[in-house]
Design brief:
3 domains
Length: 469
């Protein structure tokens, strides 16, 4: 290849790796920010985290006491002779509520209310980001998570919840997600991200496909480096997630007491990002395996020899298996949108191209490959290995029977210190010669040795055996 062509191929591989890195963030943002079902699932995992439940329970108790005169509520319920105890009771009840709020959040009722609140807020957010309806305008109003129902549920649990919903102000339990002056910017970002998730995913694979197509000699190297690029992009996303998490928590969370909950929230909310990055790594490993399988290494040639009969006689079954795997992967995925369909289609096309190239390569290398020849070679290797092991064991047993005299040195004559014989008995190597003859015969039968070479080696072995005798 020309120098310009080689540089183009290298540039495409590097570009594809960068696009893979960016596409992970685009896909994560699209699914986490714009897919309500995915967000509700994530929110359910948030409420199940102990650290987050503790922070949320503290917030609910604070909101309850900030928006409701608990002392007055208790005073109305106490008999006249103990009304003066309403104040101390309110203070003690706050401690009780604080201790019990987390247990309340563990109940299915509270978690259901939490998920409903998140679904409502996310649907409102998506409606704004996609400019659907008039729920919230970009010039007035905010997008908030309303957990007022959780405050009411908490009040019911501690015994002051009667008619509490009517007494709570409208802004009680409102966790602001986006302010009105941020909505227009968020709309623009959402539109860009939604398009980028599709474009970057397809461009990543097409860039690698273009590099592979442009390679004429040593295509396996390009496939291998494409796989390495994908693996590197996946690990880079995971590392970036860890670094960005610390920065985001430091910027958004002011109180040190809430930072553990913020870190847990970031970890859970970005777990989907790690899942997507892991998928990229797995695809990269498959690319690397494909590159190795097409390489001229000895292990790859041995693998191609094994696959040659299948690709020669049953290639239709191979393609059918590929179609089944692709369909199962697509149907079992979390989303079946246009992006997922096109991405799966491109990956399937690249896999089919790879199978076709491998089939042509094995036909050139092993035009007469069949199952008997492949398994026969494997059987011969196993038999030879077992025979060599048995011969080595016999020789070791005979050698262990020999005893060498221990010699005392120094001060004069060397005298044996044991009654072991001073001469070493010759080792019978009849089995070794027979093993060599059998291997020579096997090499002759496979065409590796000619009849003349076999006869000469046989005569040398037998002649050597006669002189030894």
């Amino acid at each position: 290849m020309s120098r310009a062509r080689r540089r183009t191929i290298k540039g495409l591989v590097i570009l594809g790796s960068v696009l893979a890195f960016l596409s992970v963030f685009a896909i994560w943002t699209e699914r986490q920010a714009l897919n309500t079902d995915d967000w509700v699932s994530t929110s359910g995992r948030l409420i199940q985290n102990k650290t987050i439940r503790t922070a949320l329970s503290n917030y609910l108790v604070d909101q309850l006491y900030e928006n409701v005169d608990v002392e007055a509520e208790l005073e109305e319920r106490f008999p006249k002779d103990i009304k003066e105890l309403a104040g101390p009771a309110a203070g003690g009840l706050r401690q009780v509520a604080g201790d019990g709020a987390e247990k309340v959040l563990e109940t299915s009722t509270a978690q259901s209310l939490w998920e409903d609140a998140n679904r409502s807020a996310h649907e409102q957010l998506v409606s704004v980001l996609e400019d659907k309806g008039d729920a919230v305008s970009t010039s007035e109003g905010n997008v908030s998570l309303n957990v007022g129902s959780l405050i009411t549920n908490l009040a019911d649990q501690v015994g002051i919840g009667q008619d509490l919903a009517d007494k709570l102000p409208a802004d009680a339990g409102q966790i602001e997600i986006l302010h009105s002056d941020q909505l227009k910017t968020a709309q623009n970002i959402a539109i860009a991200i939604k398009g980028l998730a599709l474009v970057l995913s397809i461009l990543t694979l097409l860039t690698f496909a273009g590099a592979i197509y442009l390679t004429r000699e040593g295509r396996w190297v390009t496939v291998l480096y494409s796989g390495i690029g994908l693996v590197a992009a996946g690990f880079a996303v995971i590392i970036f997630r860890e670094i960005a998490g610390g920065i985001v928590i430091d910027q958004l969370v002011v109180a040190d007491s809430v930072k553990p909950a913020g870190e847990a929230t970031w970890s859970i909310a970005t777990s989907l990002m790690t899942s997507i990055a892991t998928t990229v790594i797995v695809v990269g490993i498959l690319f690397a395996i494909a590159g190795w399988l097409a390489s001229p290494t000895g292990s790859a040639r041995a693998a191609r020899r094994v696959f040659a009969p299948v690709l020669r006689h049953h290639v239709a079954y191979v393609y059918t298996g590929l179609v089944i795997v692709v369909c199962l992967y697509f149907l079992s995925g979390p989303t079946q949108g246009l992006r997922s369909f096109l991405t799966t289609l491109v990956v399937a096309g690249m896999a089919a191209f790879g199978i076709n190239e491998l089939r042509k390569q094995t036909e050139e290398e092993y035009p007469d490959a069949d199952y008997g020849e492949v398994f026969g070679r494997t059987r011969d290797r196993v038999v030879d290995a077992v025979r060599d092991a048995n011969i080595g064991e016999r020789v070791g047993e005979q050698a262990s029977k020999l005893r060498l005299p221990e010699v005392k040195r120094g001060g004069g004559d060397e005298t044996p210190t044991s009654e072991a014989p001073t001469a070493v008995a010759p080792v019978n190597d009849e089995d070794a010669r027979l093993g060599r003859l059998e291997r020579l015969a096997s090499l002759r039968d496979k065409g590796i040795l000619t009849e003349e070479e076999f006869a000469a080696e046989k005569a040398r072995l037998l002649g050597g055996g006669g002189s030894d005798a």
